[in-house]
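We modelled the chain as a single entity of 79 amino acids. Its sequence is:
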Amino acid sequence: MYTFCLNPSYCKGCGICIDVCPKGAIKSCGRIDAKGHELPEEHDMTRCTGCKLCEIVCPDFAIAIASEESAEEVPNEEK
């Protein structure tokens, strides 16, 4: 399974990631942050295929898709 990782400091809430996801794994959170942005969040990551289209098209480099395997490879100091 994959994890949707968002850096809210970079995200401007454009929604491109939501539109481009072929499986509907991410959605808008429905809340406005302090900067006035409506950020994306995980919807159903069991649908995620790990294609990383959301990560690729993000104009602000705010998204990373992590797999369980990559999370297990990170040393404990960096988790």
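As a brief sanity check on the tokenised model: Residues 2-78 form a domain with the Alpha-Beta Plaits fold (CATH 3.30.70.3270). The mean pLDDT is 90.
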